[in-house]
Amino acid sequence: MKKSAENVKNTRGDGIDRYLGDIKSRIDSGIGSPVGYPYEKERLLLRAIRTGDGDTARRLLNEILGCIFFSCAYDTDSIKLRALELTVLMSRAALDGGADESLLSHMNRKYIFDFFRLESIDDICLSLTKMLGDFSGEVLGIFEAKHSAVISKVVSFIRGNYMHKITLEDTAEAVSLSASHLSRIFKEEMHTSFNAFLSDIRIEKSKLLLLSGDFSIAEISGLVGFSDQSYFNKVFRKNTGMTPKRFREANGEKEGVNVDFR
Fold first, then answer.
1. Does some domain include residue 94?
2. For residue 126, what are the CA distances in angstroms to 17, 87, 120, 181?
3. How confident is the model at residue 233 (pLDDT cuts 50, 70, 90)?
4. Is 98 among the domain residues?
5. What is the pLDDT of residues 4-22, one digit of tens each?
6. For residue 99, is it within any domain?
């Protein structure tokens, strides 16, 4: 049993250790009374699983387990019943989040079969924490795949429309997302903001136009989506450390530069 207890300590985090230590001392000393089941925390736990938020889900599971252990006074049979109910709910939440039904069914059979053979509270904790990690991991993987597909569409939209006056809201509408949600997942995936990425695309295109020598700086400003030349100069300088004019002078005009506007 010592090995499994150490594993529990490593996987469930400081939260459950704190709860268990506090609850055990209160039970042993007869302090306090059984607490009600934390249905609000359960609701938040299921929402975290549905959205693949593993960190929040683990924290809430720790808190719920603490309440279960205290209310059941370390009666392992009662704890198992409560935990089994929680298992079913977590499974359904993962299914709602888009996890594969056949995979969840297989996982459920394995966990439930093993669950009834558990004897210690440490092993029950370990099983539930492992189960939670698998469920939320399945959902998180789906969310990441969906995000990657959406971001790919967003990048294509920007590259195809940077020369126009496009906004975050325009782009979000094009990929059927809210602007706030798109802003968040874009930064998570691309490690830069939507506006910064759009500016980078515009500046890179403007560099090619400056080298081609076919257009004035005022014309280039409009061709890459800037409505104001002074703002274009400001963004260009921030991006490259020099003005468009200085960039053209420093690099010289190149014959045969092919400018792809897409």
1. yes
2. 12, 13, 10, 34
3. very high
4. yes
5. 333 433 443 444 444 445 4
6. yes
Burial readout 74-90 (b: 16 or more C-beta within 10 A, e: otherwise): eebeebbebbeebbeeb
85: its two tokens: 């109910």
**In a shared domain, residues 137 and 7:** yes
Alpha helices in 13-100, H assignment, sequence order: 14-29, 39-50, 54-71, 76-96
What confidence score (pLDDT) does residue 210 get?
93
Identify the residue whose tokens are 């006056």. 165
- What pLDDT shows up at residue 229? 94
Asked if 189 and 151 count as a contact pair (C-beta separation under 8 A), the reply is yes
CB 3 within 8 A of CB 118: no
- 67 and 35 in contact (C-beta within 8 Å)? yes
- Report pTM: 0.48
pLDDT tens by residue, 173-213: 998 888 888 898 888 878 889 999 999 999 999 998 998 88
> What single-letter DSSP state applies at residue 261?
-
CA dist 188 → 49, 64, 193, 209 (Å)? 19, 30, 9, 31
Distance CA 240, CA 242 (A): 6
CA distance 64 to 42: 7
Q: Which amino acid is at 93?
A: A
- The radius of gyration of the chain from alpha carbons, rounded to an integer in Å, stands at 28
Q: Let me know whether 243 and 131 are in one domain.
A: no
Q: How far apart are CA 244 and CA 223, in angstroms?
A: 14
- Find the domain containing 238 and state its range: 195-251
Mark residue 36 as left, alpha or beta (left: phi above 0; alpha: psi -120 to 50; beta: remaining).
Answer: beta
